[in-house]
Amino acid sequence: MDNSLLSLLIWLPIFAGIFVILIGNERAITARWISVATSILVFIISLSLYTEFDSNTHLMQFEEKTSWISQFNVYYHLGVDGISMPLIILTTFSTILVIIAGWEVIQTRPAHYMAAFLMMEGLIIGVFSSLDAILFYAFWEASLIPMLLIIGVWGGDNRVYAAIKFFLYTFLGSVFMLVSLIYMYNKGGSFSILAMHDLSLTATEQAWIFWAFFVAFAVKVPMFPVHTWLPDAHVQAPTGGSVILAAIMLKMGGYGFFRFSLPITPDASYEFSEVVIILSLIAIVYIGFVALVQRDMKKLIAYSSISHMGFVTLGVFALFLAYKPGAAEAALLGLEGAMVQMISHGFISAAMFLVVGVLYDRLHSREISTYGGVINSMPKFTGFAVLFAMANAGLPGTSGFVGEFMVILSAVQANIWYGVLAGSTLIVGAAYTLWMVKRVFWGAITNPDVETLSDLNAREFSILAVLAIAVVAMGLYPQPVIDVMHVTIEHLLNQALTSKL
Amino acid sequence: MNNMYTFDTSTLWVALPEIFLLSAIVVVLLLDLFLTKPFKQVTYYLTQLSLLITAILAFNLIGEPKTIIFGGSFILDNMASIFKVFMAGSTMVALVYTRHYLTEHKLFRGEYFVLVLLSMLGMMVMVSGYSLLTLYLGLEILSLSLYTLIAIARERSGAIEAALKYFVLGAIASGLLLYGMSMIYGISGSINVADIATFAANATLASREMLILNFGLVFLVIGIAFKLGAVPFHMWVPDVYQGAPTSVTMFLSTVPKIAALAMLVRILVDGMGAMHAYWSDLFMVMALLSIALGSVVALMQTNIKRMLAYSTISHIGFILLGFVTGVVEGYGAAVFYVLVYILMSMAAFGMIILLNKQGFEADKISDFKGLSKHSPWFALLMLAIMLSMAGVPPFIGFYAKLFILQQVISAGFITIAVIAVVFAVISSYYYLQVVKSMYFEDSNNEITITAPMDMKLILSINAVLILVVGLFPDFWMQLSISIF
User: Fold this and answer.
1) Residue A44: CB partners within 8 Å, gap ≥ 6?
2) What's the domain count of chain A?
3) pLDDT, tens digit, for every residue of A340-374?
4) Between the CA of residue A63 and those of A3, A54, A76, A133, A272, what are the distances in Å?
5) What burial class does residue B116 get, using C-beta atoms within 10 Å of its C-beta: 0-12 exposed, 13-18 middle, 19+ buried?
């Protein structure tokens, strides 16, 4: 059982998804119950990853390895460490939320909708647990397919454009990664990611491979200037699609930097770290201002996502400047902050998109101007919304604060100006979030439709309550999360600082 | 060596599949004349049976040691036997789809099946040909049957135009090929592939022999490139694909590619292997042009048959890249790609035929609108086929591209690999157009599927294989390499 735990996590939702398709849209209620039961089961199973995880080693755990394609020496090789394990649990957690959130809302082809999310869950767990580059790439690309269909079939008016743009952008990004993976295979004779960590590469090779990886991961994160697909995809996607996209798919990019860029091309990462840092700061500051002027709530949150993900890349690449011989704390803080930020952003962005989803289900508008004074008709809902908005703005005591604070501390060590610019998000972020809250929730009711809004039903209440608990718990006591990743991150820091030349 | 040039009846077993098929053709042709209308289906079943037996006979010859008979003009080796099994198998699948098409369009005639069998015979001769003459004979048997097959829908002007175009351009290509062969024969004094190989290996650089060999080589490459449909010899492909009856398009876009590949291997790898440096440059240019043109021009197509024609051109580009490497693994990658391409292309045309109805050709991309609502199962299969063609994992098309790219990068052509993948991304846009039609759009027209059960079943298996072989590609990759 233990040995095939990861396989179970990958294939159980995929086969359940196929089963749900076979049940068909006519028997939607059965399909829904099976989907939610599977997702809860998968979540419970994934918790045993946490309980049985040994946080004293950076080595891969729960490993599985069988030969897959002998022609290329490719193995079906799975395993997790302190970086991937929390992300897998985040995935299984978010999937439950989106399946429950789509319960009544999705009336067209409900079974297929549920099946798409279940399959995507399996594929994304595959991305986070693959230790073979081809296996990783196969899961990485395959996870695009359900998302393409989710946006294209259940999305808004302009869904076709958004779906195809999403697919092409990410596809184009990742083929360069494929070429560099093959290059390293030809050089080292193995597609094993761990073997690539030890592969010695010259400075030129590292530079090329670094940029090939960078394109793939930067599109996914997304970083300025390749972020333009995200607002389109988010705005058009159904609520569930936006949640998975923001909470998990963006993390695949961040994960790529941790798993590939830093350990495989440490010297190139060092050499080009300032470029990445500057792009991250542009994302944090400039995109923050872009978010300020949005009229569409989903677009606003999409831009705020880009801005928050900027902290992840900033934390990762600030380590080279923050590191002083003998004092690794600042660099470590940046890396751990980036990880915490990814998980916290998973909760907060999911919550924000669900909040918008609740409003959209009632009035079918995402425009800020449609609303105003929602608090009068939906007091309970407003309570949650304001909490999540505060977390989005980085209020201490919520999870949004922890990661950003750690990254800012690290950035200050790197260069005081980086810290100042990154810190400005606390103002800009608060500005765009709170201004939206003011216009949507507070004030007098301007639109007569708002008066008729009914407050949260039990289903919506429970989803938002679970997220609220997660956000506050992470904010007050993030130590358990940091503990599981600490040793792995230390090892990663070592790899990143050890020159391959 | 002398023994090789004698005719010995005890060696006839080597050509048993061909001999059987020829006899079967005669039987089917004669029998069809005496069958009255209600029994016309007998021709179909007999054809399938003949192909099945041919495949079994060829299968039994796998593993036999390399044998050359008929005065050195006919070879039996693993490549020949494995290719023959594949060709017979894919022709059988093609005929299952074909029957539905012919019935719906009132084209069901005995000649159709006889012509398919004849072209099959031609392809088998090409696969086993070991002298320039046998190869050419096989090619002509194939081509003449194909010209006639296209024109079988004689009341459609498009089909006649396609047949004529194919005939005229095909004749020019055959002429060029023959011209090249005569050059080679003139300087080496032999039409036998083995002799040519020895001669080419011994020719000194920059000698007069080398010059003439090179001259002949260029014409041979042109002839082969024409048959494969590589740029700049691709002009016939879109018109013929669009004009021909869909069942013929399906046949001519799939099985003959194996035969053309075999001819390429026989002439260029076996015969002119020593001159790889010369022809690999030509291949490189053609491969890149094919990938680029195939990917870009297909973007504008609204007719799905025409779109698939350009997609074929781009696939051919990838196949040619495998030969640029000059190593056995590279050739194996090309063979693997061809097999994968046939699996995908067969399924894609099968889907088009599936949507055909009495007098209605479903050849527009927009004919797929709303398919996911009316038939979710077949929409899902078409999704798999299209994404596989685009090279998205976990479908088989990805592994074919991976294998080729790995070989290309291993040979040191990283820039070429990068160009190829960028165009692969561009080409994914038009495959997504089909997905878009099926899933994101809806049509008011009810899509009814009138195909019989056997076609639905075979098509489903065919398309599911795209995923299944994609999950377990190892056996096919090993097989593709083992034939060299």
Assistant:
1) none
2) 1
3) 999 999 999 999 999 998 888 888 888 888 888 88
4) 7, 13, 10, 15, 33
5) buried
CB contact under 8 A, A175 and B421: yes
Q: What is the mean pLDDT of residues B433-456?
A: 83
Angstrom distances, CA of residue A36 to CA of A96, A99, A154, A282, A335: 6, 6, 19, 40, 34
- The DSSP output letter for B233 is S
Q: What is the CA radius of gyration of chain B?
A: 22
Q: Please check whether residue A99 lies inside any domain of the structure.
A: no
Q: Do A179 and B432 touch (CB under 8 A)?
A: no
Give the domain range for residue B364.
Answer: 2-482
Strand A74-80 relative to strand A61-69: parallel, antiparallel, unpaired? antiparallel
Residue A227 lies in a domain: no
Would A357 be classed as within a structural domain? Answer: yes
In this predicted complex, what is the ipTM?
0.90
First to last CA, chain B: 22
Q: What is the dihedral of CA B335, B339, B345, B349, to 10 degrees?
A: 140
Mean pLDDT of A118-143: 93
| Contact (CB<8Å) B425/A171 | yes
Tell me: pLDDT of B205 over 80.
Answer: no
Question: If you write DSSP's letter for every residue of A44-72 in order, what string do you get?
Answer: HHHHHHHHT--TT--S-EEEEEEEEEGGG
Report the domain count for chain B: 1
**Chain A contact set for B436 (CB, 8 A):** 152, 160, 163-164
- Contacts of residue B422 in chain A, CB cutoff 8 Å? 172, 175
Q: Which two tokens stand for residue A109?
A: 């082809």
Spatial distance between the Cα atoms of B171 and B166, rounded to a whole number of angstroms:
8
Decide if A486 is inside a domain: yes
User: Which alpha helices (DSSP H) does A109-202 contain, by range?
Assistant: 110-129, 133-142, 144-154, 159-188, 193-198
The amino acid at B460? S
Query: Which chain B residues are Cβ-neighbours of A119 within 8 angstroms?
Result: none
> d(Cα B459, Cα B463) in Å, to the nearest integer?
6
CB A354 within 8 A of CB A243: yes
Q: Which residues of B touch A160 (CB under 8 A)?
A: 436, 440-441
As a whole number of angstroms, the distance between CA A79 and CA A87 comes to 13
Tokens of B24: 């079967």
Contact yes or no for A384/A468 (Cβ under 8 A):
yes
Which of B297, B299, B309, B296 shows the shortest CA–CA distance to B246? B309
Q: Chain B closest CA to A261's CA: distance in Å? A: 20
* Whole-prediction pTM: 0.92
B410 vs A: CB within 8 A: yes
Q: For residue A69, which residues of chain B lie inside 8 Å, CB to CB?
A: 399, 473-474, 477
**What whole-number distance in Å separates Cα of residue B433 and Cα of residue B306?**
14
B29 touches B122 (CB < 8 A): no
Give dist(CA A349, CA A467) in Å, integer: 10
Please confirm whether the linkage preceding A480 is cis (ω < 30° from 0): no
- Give me the domain span that covers residue A448: 273-501
Instruction: Please count the residues of chain A.
Output: 501
Confidence of residue B6 (pLDDT cuts 50, 70, 90): low
Q: Name the residue among B380, B439, B477 with its Cβ closest to that of A153.
A: B439
Burial A229-254 (b: 16+ CB within 10 A, else e): bbbbbbbbbbbbbbbbbbbbbbbbbb
Joined tokens for residue A298: 């989903």
Beta-bridge partners for B129: B74
Please name the amino acid found at residue B201: A
Q: Does B428 touch chain A (CB under 8 A)?
A: yes
Q: How many CA atoms lie within 13 A of B114 on its CB side?
A: 16
- Phi and psi for A108 in degrees, rounded to 5? -85, 125
